[in-house]
Specification:
Length: 135
């Protein structure tokens, strides 16, 4: 029987081999794409956004909104356990980093300035995600 390795058990070398360089830089190196340059910041089709590292579902298009910041923004994850929050003080400011719960890949940050009903703005790197349109 084939035993597939869990994304959480993959080494950084295995991730480097699996992902294109820009996705590796962002997902595994906690990088950020420049505003208005990544995929999906201006996409408003109906569908599901998933982690580019492991394909776990993260966000539905009906929670996406135009925050005007240049990154795809959502007010709610597809489920409470889809993403994991971590304290981030790397820029000398306290922020909340958002990672994929399944593989630990860096997705972006969440801020308390979003629209109702949650008041949250999940500001994600489009390069960290893939999009599957509804049929």
């Amino acid at each position: 029987m084939f035993n597939k390795k869990s994304p959480k058990d993959m080494t950084e070398a295995e991730w480097r081999e699996k992902l294109p360089p820009e996705q590796f830089r962002i997902l595994r190196g906690k990088g950020t794409e420049r505003a208005f340059t990544g995929p999906y910041w201006n996409t408003f089709e109906t569908g599901t956004y998933s982690c580019a590292g492991c394909q776990s579902k993260l966000f539905k298009s009906d929670t996406k909104f135009d925050a005007g910041c240049g990154w795809p923004s959502f007010f709610e994850a597809v489920s409470p356990d889809a993403v994991t929050e971590h304290r981030d003080t790397t820029l000398g400011v306290e922020r909340t980093e958002i990672c994929c719960t399944n593989c630990g890949g860096h997705l972006g940050h969440v801020f308390p300035d979003g629209p109702p009903p949650t008041g949250l703005r999940y500001c994600m790197n489009g390069t960290s995600m893939t999009f599957l349109p509804d049929e």
